Amino acid sequence: MLPAIFGLSGTELTPMERELFSAAEPAGYILFGRNISSRQQVRALTDSLKDLSGRENVPILIDQEGGRVARLTPPEWRSWPEADRFARLHSVDPHTARRACQANYEALGLDLAELGITVNCAPVLDVPEPGAHDVIGDRAFGTDPVVIADLGRAALQGLSAAGIVGVVKHIPGHGRSRSDSHHELPVVNLGDEALQRDLAPFIALNDAPMAMTAHILYTEWDPYHCATLSNRVIQSVIRERIGFDGLLMSDDLDMKALKGAVPELAHAAIEAGCDVVLNCWGKIDDMRGIAQHLPEATVACRRRLTAAMTHSQPLGESVNIVERQAALVAERDELLALLAREAAH
Asked: pTM of the full predicted structure?
């Protein structure tokens, strides 16, 4: 198995993709808007990926956070609230906000389960700071690390109840970056004591099945390498201090925060300690290069992947997804309305 997660170029596998994926056996795949046109088409695509891999529970990822980060969009699919909406009402009644959050993410997860998607790149556990770039913003569960951890746990539980594996991101924290790592490398020049605030939600949820790294340079921990490419950050901070032993994937290797050829970056991320690398854009030459540069997945990677994919069990055939989702959305809306009334008083 190749320790990589690959994107696809379109709405169905091309002959070149089929040939490469059959030979390389990537750990998983990730879908974007360019891969999505209808329910029937997405289900056919995920079925083809499962058939090709020979694994019913092969990781097929998507970014479906809700709010502004959503690959499944109306009118074919429901829209989902941003994470911050639950945080704004958490102070009114934490228990009710937590219930609403869990119902929301279970309902959202049912969309994915219906399509054969197995992994959602959510929830965001970053802690936004005043003056930070808004690349995180309302994608986070507010600004209090305790609240973020509480609602993040509810989101993971909701996804799991729908048979979906969640991915916490962006470990060890993207909330205080002053720039967007999609476009440039953010640099955080703060001491260890200040950075403890960023780590807190990840420590609280260190039993999450999967996590995605941050392409951020933390000068306190490693002045030369961003977290994704830093053995010091991955081993000393993520694995030891945070205590995360789940599957660790890089963020997308094509982001402008990283400099260099994608295959070489993939090798550097694996050498630094990432279990798998994420390459999202479906560029066949980059994927071929990654397949040539990377060794076989390690025993630890395989163990973590197996454990992560058994974290959530597929839905039984007896579950009526349409009815269950409608009931969960109604429950969420009732709870949010109750919180809004309490807040008004």
From this structure: 0.97
Q: Which of 47, 51, 95, 182 is catalytic?
A: 182
pLDDT greater than 90 at residue 216: yes
Active site residue 215: no
Whether the ω angle into residue 172 lies within 30 degrees of 0, i.e. cis, is yes
User: Active site residue: 251, 252, 275, 286, which one?
Assistant: 251
Averaged over 113-123, what is the pLDDT? 97
Residue 138: per-residue pLDDT: 96
- What Cα–Cα distance (Å) separates residue 307 from each residue in 119, 141, 302, 313? 13, 27, 9, 11
For position 149, which CATH number holds? 3.20.20.300
CA atoms within 13 A on the CB side of 53: 22
The domain total for the chain is: 1
Nearest to 282 by CA among 24, 32, 3: 32
**What mean pLDDT, rounded, does the chain reach?**
96
Active site residue 251: yes
Length of the chain: 345
